Amino acid sequence: MSSVTVPPQRQPGAGQPAWVARFDTVPYSIQFCIGRPHVSTWIYRLAHASWRARRRVVAIWLAILVALGGLALAVGGSFNDEFDIPGASSKVALDGLRMTFPEAALSSANMVVLAPEGQKVTDPAIKQAIEDELPKLKELDWVEMAQSPFFEYVDGLISDDETAALINVRAKEGLGPSNLSDAQREMLVEAGADLQDAIPGGEVHVGGDLFSVSMPHLSAIEAIGVGIAIIVLLVVLGSLRAALMPVISALVGAGASVLVIVIAAGVIPIMSTTLLLALMLALAVGIDYSLFIVSRHRDQLATGMDAEESAARATATAGSAVVVAGSTVIVALVGLSVAGIPFLGIMGVFSAVAVAIEVALALTLLPAMLGFAGDRIRPKEARLAMAEGRSIEQHAKPDAWTRASRWWVRVITKVPLLTILAVIAMLGALALPATQLKLALPNSGQNPPGAPDRITFDLITERFGAGYNGPLVITGPIVESNDPMGLVTELAGEVEQVPGVKLVAMAVPNPNADTGLIQVIPTTGPDDPATNQLVHDLRALTDTWRAERGVDMAITGYTAMALDVSAQLAGALLPFSLFVVGLSLVLLTVVFRSLVVPVKAALGYLLSVGAAFGITTLVFNLGWFKEVINLPEAIPVISFLPIILMGILFGLAMDYEIFLTSRMREEYVHGNRTNPTEEGFVHSAKVVVAAAIIMVSVFAFFVPAGSGVIKPIALGLAVGVAIDAFLVRMTLGPAVMKMLRSGAWWLPAWLDRRLPALDAEGEAITHQLSLAEWPHPDADHAVYGEGLAAATERTTLFSDVDLALPRGGTLVLEGGAASRRALTLALTGRLALTSGELKVLGLVLPQQAGSLRRHALWLDGSDPDAARILARASAHDDVTLVAVDDADRLPADARGALAELTSHEGMSLVLAASDADVLAALVPAQRVRADLAAPAVPADAAELTDPALTGGTR
């Protein structure tokens, strides 16, 4: 193996001959990495631009908020809290019912009439009062019908002891729990009060499905979480100005997210839970993401770095981790669509939008705010030292955070196996109660005791039976029957024999006698597992009817639809789990260049989720410590909690994994083989602890005053984040890394070359900035490189190549086909080197390869279009470097075009051939040096000519 060196001290000047470089090797397929994504480079430029145009950036975000506010007022809609699944049998049956039996498919409310003590509702005076009230109910502008409890075709609307009657009020088509206004509900409440006045000593209570929805609302309690966040930020950052910036950024993002959701609600059905979920996430991640950047900025200012440069570098480095972390949250939330349930997919998408907005704010508005603050947020000691012209002490004594972090990581890694076993045992024990997790969709029975609709729900259960709160409807076509009424009655008789059926309240055909309807009252309530079993038994019965009678009936109603939603959610849980865990393995393999770390992170995530489920079960299903969270009684949790919790917690867990483990990897990659785990932990622990406390606080303070749906989600997220951050990432993680040592970073070389570079810690911009004035501040080379090498899986194409070519110079390369092609591609930003430092046209590679390709042309000398390509390059002033491989094979017209290029001031050439002697005629004689090495070993370079691999090359 041979190599070439073109020493910098022998670089040719203008009018002097260029150096001839000769190298040879044995070529095989080479790994191309054309324009690997170096996010930090782009973010660095964006942060500089935001700093300088800070007034414009603030104005743009204010304009966006105003525009969104205007749209929200103009086209914003109301929320739709209906739980259904298109295509589910219950949904199909309900849609059919709306066409054939529309009055039976309308949303309803209930009025429970209680007779005075010692009297019955069947007493003439009370019965007459009820009958007199029904026409008044029908006069309400939103009421379609009010069914009398004394209607002869409906059974069960009078309690067995005749002390209570049930009036069913149905809303007009299109009205439901979500879009019925409070004023319209109040009309029915007033009508109930009038009826109560007409029955001295009696009571009338109003409730039912139309009263079961409570729209999201905010209270002062949620603001406490933001207050705690400000206190934590003040302690960590040591500056009130700096502490307020993450909060301002998060609030702007939260406001924008809420407005986007309100606007979308006017176009598509969106659940009210989406609003609070997006708000929680926006506040939590918005504050955390900005904290990472501001903390890095303050640390850099403490070293005396220029404020603008510090803001750009902090945004590029910590901001790169923010982009990667935010992307994981976004992908996990969008992944909720895997469940195939529209309302859940929409919830995930708009929550992802909220996270994306917060990431955008952290990269633009935050640098702008840092620009307004300038040097005023520089630590006091550094500011005083700079004012007095003193040098800033770079090795100050460790602060309390650093000392505590170092003590903790040493304790947990002293006997790492013991720590691992202890954490796994603890989290396993916390996860055990999850086996008793009880899920359901919300209904009035889950509302706090004392709520009007809950009182009605409880009265119906007490006086009529729990099943009256969740009736089932069996419906289907009976058009082929010669005796519709007889058929429906016969089917109803069979239904009454099914265990769990209290009674058939109604069994009638519609007026056209083409559809039958059987209303079934179960013996158990809508949340009872026995009701679930009843639905399965009734569906088995309808299958029998279909097979034996040719009657195709289906079961619908709120309870049946709720069970279908829960069943589909349960079925989607495993695919979604595989999606999330698989995503984490792929993502972390790319970020950390390791196979072991992703497995550790994924298993840790599963422990966190299991423990979060377990604690949620203990509190909500079993009632442990329910008073702490203002929960009156044990209740089921919302059916989609598991999948929502898994998706969101995955993204947040990966945030902390990236912020902590990437610093450990940075220590390892930079040569620390002694204690990379400890040093990486110490450098990142403070900001991760602060971020976790902030996120837990934001979620936790949505629990006490949260609605029935959001309360368990907020608790699960608060507990899950706390467990994942403090037990899994900051205890279990370092212990595992310590035990594995260097083995934690093992990755097959072939896989490493094929993985994209996400640059989670901003290494790209750090590398680029470190070479900004390399090799010296006044250097103006077309090409400057040291220790350049490129390799395949089995061999080295070239190595130890040093180059120094002045602008306007010509470099002639001689060597094997694959080797010289590899170097010419590398010099034009079209192939990644395996080692070495390289600047071309003042641009650092590989970070600025994309920019270089706009100014550097690569050409295959055997290309029949070579003359046209060179002529086009000659016409463009942007092209200042041309590299030609197989230059000795250029046709005559192309040689003329190349000669024309050499007359351009500042044009630099790189010419490569197997024999450099034949290149003498291509450039002016005074620019050629016949200093050639022995001929290279012949080799086939076919694999380096594919335009798909070379990024188009032209």
TrEMBL record:
Tell me where in this chain the SSD domain is found. 281-372
**What is one term from the GO cellular component aspect held by the record?**
plasma membrane
The membrane topology of this protein is: Multi-pass membrane protein
Extract the Pfam families matched here.
MMPL
Q: What keywords are annotated for this sequence in UniProt?
A: Cell membrane, Membrane, Transmembrane, Transmembrane helix
Question: Does Nucleus appear among the keywords?
Answer: no
Q: What is this protein called?
A: MMPL family transporter
Classification from the root reads: Bacteria, Bacillati, Actinomycetota, Actinomycetes, Propionibacteriales
